[in-house]
Give the backbone structure.
Amino acid sequence: MKNLTDLADIPPIQVWDGIRARRVQGEQVTLAIVELDPGAVAPEHRHPNEQNGMVVSGTMTFRIADEERELGPGGTWRILAGMPHSARAGAEGAVVIDVFSPIRADWDALPTLDLESPRWPPG
């Protein structure tokens, strides 16, 4: 990966049905811009990576351990390593930014999709 690139030039990967991510991968951090189709679900899971994120557009309902909340643009989350969590996109879908540390090396095995324009930023 180049050090400087446009989001539109990063091929998306298929994370789950209706959920695609474009990664900016460093040596110790993964920055992911994730697009979720309306109603798309990230089923409950956990991973050894810490995860912080923010909704850019649309809405998401997050469940982290025993806490659940709907978040809109500007809503943030913090998921500590190993903590169970799940999420569901709202009726209009969502675009979110996720940051993982250490990197999401497990995503290397996910299928790459055809390059198409990202939903965010608009234009």
